[in-house]
């Protein structure tokens, strides 16, 4: 038997050998609503689920088609099964290759499960970058020199973080609004 995790819904999932039939939107919504962005080091609790909803809504506001908006909602879905690593580990030679390969396999299974193209649309990366700039402004100590590398323009609206239950609800609402 392949090593697996038990998910919120009681299913099992093998993160190093993902199968699309083992992916459930409820598991993704639940896990991401309980995981904090920036490894949980924001000034206010802010979940990956909320981040994902905001990316998807930013794409909607830009007039992007529904499949791109759905990609935006699910762009961090692999983190529901692998969790996210802080950037210094994600780029470290001893960790990066193994984690990135696992992340790519899980995202491929997510795309297969939800009928999305395997390649992340450029618009998703752009919306993610704008939201990152917004999150740094609103949730981090954005005046630090290391944040100066961010060149994307933050959105006008300020982030007022949701609780985990609201984030989970909004993630699922957005998924079903997009026809998921």
Output the keywords:
globular, two-stranded antiparallel ribbon, 2% strand, 8 helices, Hypothetical protein af1432, mainly alpha, 180 residues
Question: Could you characterize the architecture of this molecule?
Answer:
This protein has 180 residues and is mainly α. It has one domain: Hypothetical protein af1432. Helices cover 51% and strands 2% of the residues. It is built from eight helices and two strands. It is globular. The two termini are 31 Å apart.
Note the topology.
Layout: E1 5-6, E2 12-13, H1 25-33, H2 48-61, H3 66-74, H4 79-82, H5 87-90, H6 96-114, H7 122-139, H8 164-177
Antiparallel strand pairs: 1-2
Helix pairs in contact: 1-8, 2-3, 2-7, 2-8, 3-7
The gist of it:
With about 180 residues, the chain is an all-alpha fold. The protein contains eight helices and two strands.
General shape: globular
Which CATH architecture would you pick? Orthogonal Bundle
CA distance, first residue to last residue = 31 Å
The count of DSSP E runs of length 2 or more, i.e. the number of strands, is: 2
Average per-residue pLDDT, rounded, comes to 95
Strand coverage percent:
under 5%
Order of helices and strands: EEHHHHHHHH
Radius of gyration, Cα only, in angstroms?
16 Å
Strand order of the largest sheet: 1-2
- The fourth-level CATH homologous superfamily is Hypothetical protein af1432
Low-confidence stretches: none
Number of helices: 8
Our count of domains comes out at: 1
The major sheet is characterized as: 2 strands, antiparallel
- Given the helix and strand composition, which structural class is it? mainly alpha
CATH topology: Hypothetical protein af1432
Task: Return the CATH class.
Answer: Mainly Alpha
What level of helicity do the residues show?
40-55%
């Amino acid at each position: 038997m392949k090593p697996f995790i038990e998910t919120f819904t009681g299913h099992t999932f093998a993160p190093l050998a993902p199968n699309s039939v083992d992916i459930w939107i409820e598991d993704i919504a639940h896990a991401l609503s309980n995981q904090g962005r920036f490894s949980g080091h924001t000034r206010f609790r802010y979940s990956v689920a909320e981040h994902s909803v905001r990316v998807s809504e930013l794409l909607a506001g830009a007039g992007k088609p529904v499949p791109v908006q759905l990609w935006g909602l699910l762009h961090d879905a692999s983190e529901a099964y692998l969790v996210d690593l802080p950037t210094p580990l994600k780029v470290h030679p001893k960790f990066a290759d193994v984690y990135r390969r696992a992340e790519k396999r899980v995202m491929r299974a997510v795309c297969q499960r939800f009928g999305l193209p395997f390649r992340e649309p450029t618009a998703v990366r752009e919306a993610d970058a704008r939201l990152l700039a917004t999150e740094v402004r609103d949730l981090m100590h954005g005046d630090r020199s290391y944040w100066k590398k961010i060149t994307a323009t933050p959105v006008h609206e300020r982030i007022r973080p949701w609780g985990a239950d609201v984030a989970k609800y909004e993630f699922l609402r957005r998924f079903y609004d997009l026809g998921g």
